[in-house]
Design goal:
alpha+beta, 8 strands, two-stranded antiparallel sheet, single chain, 4-stranded mixed sheet, about 325 residues
C-alpha cells in the first residue's frame, strides 16, 4: 500500500519535495521501517518499549519549548538524540493538554475498575455466607484471579491496584499512579530519518495526521458529506459512490482552508451551516405599483461570519439579476 501511495503522489506532485510517510505507533513493523520502502522518508511515533525508554525519564527541566511559525503551539520537547546506526533521530515531546486528557481518562478507568472490583467483593461476601450455611463454597484462587484481571483489564490499572492474598480486598497504589503520570502521560516518542528537518517541522508533520483523521470522521457524519447510507451493491456503483463522496470531502476541506486563511477557523459542519444560513428574499410588487424592476432584498441580515463567508465565496453572484 505504501508503494502504491508513494507512486500516486509522485505522479501528481512532480517537482515537489520527496514524499514523507507519517504514521502512528500502530503501523510500526519491520517492513514499514525498511529504508527502501517506497523510497520515501518517514516520520513515525514509537511505542515506549521500542523508542528508547530512557527518553521518558528525562527530567522536566531538560525540555525546551519549540516556538516556530510552522508549528504554532508546539509542545515542549527534549533535544534530539540520534542513536548510532539508526540513520535518523528520535526525541520525546510533551503536551500539557494531552497530559491532562490522559490523566482524566485514566481516573475514569480507575473508577470503573473500582466499581467492578467492589461488585465482585459483594458477590464473594455472599458466597462466604452461603458456604458458612453449608452451601456452595467460595471460588478457587485461579478462578478468582482471572475474575479480578477481567475487571481491572486495561493497559495500566492492574499495575496500580494492590490486592490482598485472600482476594477480598484491594487498594490503589498512589505511588505507582504518580510514576505513571510522570513517565507516560502527555509524552510521545517521535522518530524520523529526515535529519535535515528542524524539530518543529517533524512535530508539525506528525500532527498533520489529524487532518486525515478529521476527514474520516467527516465521512462518518450522517448529516454533512456522509459516506453512508450507501444504497449500492455492485462494484461499479460503489466505486462511483466512493468517488463523489471523496470529491465532496475534498471540496469541503478546500473551502475550510480558504476560510481559515481568511481568519475563520470553522469545522466543515460549521462552515456549511454558515453558508446555509445566508438567505435572500426577492420582493416582487404588482406591476401597477412597480416603478422599477424587483430588487433582491436581504430580509435576514447576515451575521458577521456569514457576511465574511458570503464575500469569500462570492455568494452574491448567485443572486437573482434584475
Amino acid at each position: 500500500m505504501i508503494d502504491d501511495l508513494v507512486d500516486r503522489y509522485r505522479s501528481v506532485a512532480a517537482g515537489i519535495e520527496g514524499a514523507t510517510i507519517v504514521y502512528d505507533a500502530g503501523q510500526n513493523s519491520a517492513a514499514n521501517h525498511a529504508p527502501h520502502r517506497g523510497g520515501a522518508d518517514r516520520v513515525r511515533r514509537l511505542p515506549a518499549a521500542l523508542g528508547s525508554p530512557g527518553l521518558l525519564t528525562v527530567p522536566a527541566d531538560a525540555y525546551h519549548r519549540v516556538d516556530d511559525p510552522d508549528c504554532p503551539g508546539c509542545a515542549p520537547t527534549t533535544p534530539r538524540s540520534t542513536p548510532s546506526g539508526s540513520g535518523g533521530g528520535r526525541f520525546v515531546t510533551h503536551s500539557a493538554s494531552l497530559h491532562a486528557a490522559q490523566s482524566r481518562g485514566f481516573d475514569q478507568t480507575l473508577d470503573k475498575a473500582r466499581d467492578r472490583l467492589g461488585a465482585l467483593q459483594v458477590r464473594l461476601a455472599a458466597r462466604r455466607t452461603r458456604r458458612d450455611r453449608g452451601g456452595r463454597g467460595a471460588r478457587d484462587r485461579a478462578d478468582l484471579r482471572a475474575a479480578v484481571g477481567r475487571r481491572g483489564a486495561h493497559r495500566h490499572p492492574h499495575r496500580h491496584h494492590r490486592r490482598r492474598s485472600c482476594g477480598c480486598g484491594y487498594r490503589t497504589d498512589r505511588h505507582a499512579r504518580r510514576q505513571l503520570e510522570d513517565r507516560i502521560f502527555g509524552k510521545r516518542i517521535l522518530f524520523t530519518n529526515r535529519t535535515d528537518w528542524p524539530v518543529a517541522r517533524v512535530i508539525a508533520a506528525y500532527r498533520s495526521q489529524s487532518d486525515i483523521e478529521s476527514g474520516f470522521r467527516q465521512l462518518k457524519d450522517p448529516q454533512v458529506i456522509s459516506f453512508s447510507p450507501m444504497h449500492h451493491w455492485t462494484d461499479q456503483k460503489i466505486r462511483v459512490h466512493v468517488f463523489y463522496s471523496v470529491l465532496a470531502l475534498t471540496i469541503a476541506h478546500l473551502m475550510r482552508r480558504e476560510a481559515a486563511d481568511a481568519g475563520l477557523h470553522l469545522s466543515v459542519r460549521e462552515l456549511l451551516a454558515e453558508l446555509a444560513g445566508i438567505e435572500e428574499t426577492v420582493l416582487a410588487l404588482p406591476r401597477r405599483h412597480q416603478r422599477s424592476p424587483p430588487r433582491p432584498t436581504n430580509a435576514h441580515r447576515p451575521q458577521r461570519h456569514r457576511r465574511t463567508t458570503a464575500r469569500l465565496f462570492g455568494i452574491d453572484r448567485y443572486a437573482p439579476t434584475r
